[in-house]
Automatic annotation (TrEMBL):
<dbReference type="InterPro" id="IPR036767">
    <property type="entry name" value="ApaG_sf"/>
</dbReference>
<feature type="domain" description="ApaG">
    <location>
        <begin position="3"/>
        <end position="128"/>
    </location>
</feature>
<dbReference type="InterPro" id="IPR050718">
    <property type="entry name" value="ApaG-like"/>
</dbReference>
<protein>
    <submittedName>
        <fullName>ApaG protein</fullName>
    </submittedName>
</protein>
<dbReference type="InterPro" id="IPR007474">
    <property type="entry name" value="ApaG_domain"/>
</dbReference>
<dbReference type="Pfam" id="PF04379">
    <property type="entry name" value="DUF525"/>
</dbReference>
Amino acid sequence: MVQQVTQGIKISVKTRYDGSFIKHREVKHAFVYSITIENQSKDTVQLISRCWNIKDALNKPKVIQGEGVIGAKPILMPGEKHSYTSGCLLDSPMGAMSGHYNLVNFVTTKNFKVSIPLFNLSAPFSMN
């Protein structure tokens, strides 16, 4: 598990390899990541959007942006957590992801970024 705290918001990430399959005549490697966002600050915040940097050992890096996470824009009061699970497909059995969330602080009404720490994606067989 990797963890990082930015401006009182703790991000924890766990990953696992979910197997490979063929899609459009190409082998794809499926990875699952579970993220917990914990508000350790004294203010209520809301997650507005996300930006992912996805690195695949065989391809150019991709940037994925979008609103919320898994269709939600969670509001977190001090001490609250929000967890979700998602995934990505890579052409290679190895890669990595990082990025940031855009949040708004309800007390100051200011937007701020929270870093998502770099986490590796690797199939167990790729490390041999």
